[in-house]
Amino acid sequence: MAIESTIVQRDDEYFNETQYFTSHTGVVSIKVSEEQEVEEGDLLYTITRLGLIKKRLSGHGGIVKNINGKLENTYCGYYAHVLDVEYQLSPEEAQAVEEEQHYRFIRAPQGAQYFTTPNPGMPPVISVGDYVVKGQVVAIAMVMKKRREVIYEGERGRVAKIFFMNGQQCRAGDRLIGIVPKPLKKRG
Fold this sequence. Notes:
With about 190 residues, this protein is mainly β. The chain is built from 1 helix and 17 strands. The protein starts with a strand and ends in a 7-residue tail after the last strand.
């Protein structure tokens, strides 16, 4: 992917820093300047190769940071870092980030299409708010019409967030489910 986003904390505020990279070879022409404010859909730069111009648009609003000026009007290779765009998270987004710091993530074991239901029309194997235990099926992966169950291997917990939509294609390592550990209380 030619875009990488990271959430960083500075003092008591959270920022989304998105790095943009070239998606193929060609001559780069940067259309913004550092500290310029951009909105979602604004033109950041173009890459020209064999007379074809490909545009890179901003995926969200923010402030342009760290432009790699050495790339301007030069031929560059695949995945060269062009620039960064950052914005401050809203209080709601910051709260979600803080909550996710306590999650244990179930990640996609392979690139596949993921489902929460074993078959269309059936109830989901898990929902947000459900408790899960070790050995429980939490998702279904489909690869080349072969079904593979994703089994939970952690301690007892509550499903806090499901990061994929039913039938969504996910890459290996993508977050599928966020679990908040909730061990059983021992009687004294």
